[in-house]
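dumping this here so i dont lose it
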């Protein structure tokens, strides 16, 4: 039996000094971004939002190695639409898969968040099960490991909490333990109770997104697909705060796993900053785009926009970059 390098423990709440975890850049950008967003005409952000959703949908599956799509095809699908390229069937550990089917499921889930936020969607065990079922709607199998070490395909339990342990074998041969199946329901209840308390105390979105994602992954309540659900929970927190969802890409997977490992060791701050960095980068790029003189037609006329127009008509708006 391999030596266990990370035994399971019940999830913990935020530390008492949780405010120190927040990224100070988020607060200043939030004020500027929301003032711009409120001045935009209805529908002005639709095209950009859909591009972000397409990128999120494609990359969340690449991170999980559900399929492999090169950077060129990924860029074309983001810019021109999911149907702009014809993706061939691929053979993976799950068998023969059609990447576009997974991507469309993932796109539909992340796009649905905007509607759910407007309707005050409550986060409940049923919500989590529904999100999982939507992600794996067309995934009929997952991969499991027998005690002998043999990998086998097993039927996917869709929208159902796990009935068997799903502890992965690490590259060094050690076992990473997640929540035992018999403890999943109670741990999910604790997660959602803490989350509700955080909402009451107005925990900032960058902290809550990282905490919720990490603690959900610690529980690992489903047989497979936990990473996809965790990333959409983080996306939900940013969307509720007026941002677009951070896009974890396959290219940044090493940084993503590193930050999660630091959170496993008790330091959530690197993961907070990893996700906020992704959100800040795309938000600042969008603000720069919106402030270009040729895009003044996106805004309704009001005193704030008129003051921007004066800046535009002189030397142009100073670009704000976040790298």
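and the seq i came up w/
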């Amino acid at each position: 039996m391999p030596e266990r390098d990370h035994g399971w423990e019940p999830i913990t709440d935020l530390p008492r000094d949780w405010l120190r975890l927040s990224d100070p850049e988020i607060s200043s950008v939030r004020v500027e971004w929301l003032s711009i967003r409120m001045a935009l005409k209805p529908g002005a952000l639709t095209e950009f939002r859909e591009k972000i959703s397409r990128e999120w949908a494609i990359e969340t599956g690449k991170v999980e190695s559900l399929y492999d799509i090169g950077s060129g095809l990924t860029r074309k699908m983001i810019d021109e639409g999911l149907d702009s390229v014809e993706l061939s069937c691929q053979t993976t550990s799950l068998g023969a898969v059609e990447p576009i089917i997974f991507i469309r499921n993932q796109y539909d889930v992340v796009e649905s968040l905007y509607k759910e936020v407007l309707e005050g969607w409550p986060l409940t065990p049923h919500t989590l099960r529904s999100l999982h079922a939507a992600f794996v709607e067309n995934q009929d199998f997952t991969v499991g490991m027998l005690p002998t070490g043999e990998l086998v395909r097993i039927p996917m339990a869709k929208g159902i909490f796990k009935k068997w342990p799903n502890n992965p074998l690490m590259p060094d041969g050690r076992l990473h333990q997640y929540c035992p199946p018999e403890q999943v329901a109670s741990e999910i209840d604790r997660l959602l109770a803490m989350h509700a308390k955080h909402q009451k105390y107005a925990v900032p979105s960058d902290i809550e997104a990282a905490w919720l994602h990490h603690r959900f992954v610690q529980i690992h309540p489903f047989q497979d697909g936990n990473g996809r659900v965790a990333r959409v929970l983080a996306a939900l927190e940013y969307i509720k705060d007026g941002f677009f969802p951070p896009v974890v890409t396959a290219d940044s997977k090493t940084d993503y796993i590193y930050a999660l490992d630091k959170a496993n060791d008790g330091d959530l701050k690197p993961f907070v900053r990893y996700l906020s960095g992704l959100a800040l980068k795309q938000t600042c790029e969008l603000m720069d785009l919106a402030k270009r003189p040729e895009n003044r037609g996106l805004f309704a006329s009001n005193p704030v926009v008129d003051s921007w127009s004066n800046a535009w008509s002189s030397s142009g708006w100073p670009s704000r970059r976040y790298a």
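The beta strands are 4-6, 90-92, 95-97, 141-145, 151-155, 175-176.
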